[in-house]
Prior knowledge:
- The chain is α/β, with parallel strands linked by helices.
- It has one domain: Rossmann fold (3-Layer(aba) Sandwich).
- It contains four helices and nine strands, in the order αβαβαβββαββββ.
- Strand 2 (about 40-45), helix 3 (about 50-60) and strand 3 form a beta-alpha-beta unit.
- Helix 2 (about 15-35) crosses helix 3.
- It binds inosinic acid and magnesium ion (MG).
- Inosinic acid binds near residues 115 and 116.
Amino acid sequence: MTAATRLSNVEILISASEIARRVTALAETIVTKLPPDLMIVSLLRGSFVFTADLIRALHLAGAKNGIRPQIDFMTLASYGAQATSSGSVQIVRDLTQSVEGRHVLIVDDILESGRTLTFARDLIKQRGAASIKIAVLLEKPGKRKMPIDADFVGFTIPDKFAVGYGLDYGNYYRELPFIGVVEVS
Ligand code: IMP
Ligand code: MG
């Protein structure tokens, strides 16, 4: 199977170079707004590619404010293998470090209903974080079921199912260097 046939049902929405430019711009904004001793909480699995690029962009952008983030991961599940939200969020794997008294930046792939990020934010708040901000690569407007917004947004996208750059459909397509859309049933 060639790469072209493997991806015949994926339409490119945002190219790799557009993503790179936007991640750099986001990092430049983030370093002016947040303290250098950040705790980054990356929500797995969808945000691992975005987080990996964002922390390096933060390093490059943060020469002046001396940013030195710590990174931790939490696996939350709300979708399972389907493309429709099950409505409840569960911790599949928890953080390894305490967030008490820390300035936390939660990083996620996409803000849709807002259930995942509401759950993560409330949990981290309950655990005594000093401050909490949210950065998402993508957001879909008009889909929110919870009153939550991200402080830093990469791209606002139409109401289609996005894959690539860490985002999946049935745990496939995460490796794509661009963001594409697929038809889901
Ligand atoms: P929310 O809880 O509905 O805001 O959805 C957040 C989670 O659902 C994200 O972290 C993704 O894992 C998943 N999700 C929502 N929309 C998409 C999409 O278009 N493509 C891939 N995953 C998505
Ligand atoms: Mg996710």
